[in-house]
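User: Teach me something about this protein's shape.
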Amino acid sequence: MATVKRWRPSVVFASAYLVVVLLMVAVPQLFTKFDPVENDLLSVNQAPSAAHLAGTDYLGRDLFSRIVYGARYSVGIGLAVTVFALVFAVILGTLAGASRSSFVDNVVMRVIDVLSSFPSILLALVIVGLTGSGIQNLILALGIGSIPGLTRLIRAETKKIILSDYVQQSKTFGLSRFTILVRHVLPNSLGVIPYMVTMSVGEAIIGVSGLSFLGVGPQPPTPEWGTIIADSRNYLGVAWWSGIIPGVVLVLTVISFTVIGQAWQKSFEGRD
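Assistant: First, the predicted structure itself:
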C-alpha cells in the first residue's frame, strides 16, 4: 500500500507535469488558438510576449502552439514505440523465462544479444535507412531497439516467479503448467510493466526527437520537438528561445517519466 512518504515533491511535480503534457497530446486546442504550421513573415523571430508566450520562429510561426501540437508526435510516437516493444518483450521474455527447454531460452536470448550489440540509435538509423522515413517506420525502428532491455526484465521476473515457493506449491496440487503460467506467473511477472513503460517512454521520446533532429523523423513543417529544435540551429544567436524553450520542455518530459518510473519501481520492490 502506498504511503504518504512516497508522495514526495518530485513525484507530485512530475505527475502534474505529465498530466498537462498528456492533455496536450489529447486536446491541444485547449492550450492554443494558433495554427502550428501557419507562417507569418511579419512576426519572424519575435521574443516571448503576451501575444506569443514562447515567441515565434524563423517563419513567424507561434512557437508555443508548435510545442503543444508537437507533443502529439513526440510523446504519441514514444508511447507507440513502447507499446510495440512491450508486446514482443512480453512474448519473448515469458517464452524464454517459462520454457522447460534451455534450447528455447538460449535461442531467444541469443537473438536479444544480437539486437543488443548495436547501439539503439544506430540500429534505428539502419532500419529507417532500409525501410524509409515515416512515422510507422520510425516506430518500427525504435521499437525493435527497445525490445532487448524489456525482454530481459520480463524473462528475469518470470524465472524468479517460477522458482518461488507458491508456484512450486501449486505444482504439488496437480495444476497444469499452462494453468500455473496464466494464473500465477503472468499476472505477477507483468507487475513490472508500469515502471518499465514509464522508463521506456522517456527513452523513446529521446529517440524520436534525436532521429527527427537528424532529419529522419517526421518531416517539416510537422511540429515534432526534435524537428523544432533542429529548425532553430541557425537562429540561436538572434532567437535563443526557438531552441531553448522546446529543449527544456523535452528534458522536463523525459525527467518526469523517469521520476514516475523510479517511484513505481521502488513501490514494486517494496523500497522507500
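Now, about its shape. The two ends are 12 Å apart (CA to CA). DSSP finds ten helices and no strands in the chain. If you'd like, I can walk through any region in more detail.
User: That's plenty for now, thanks!
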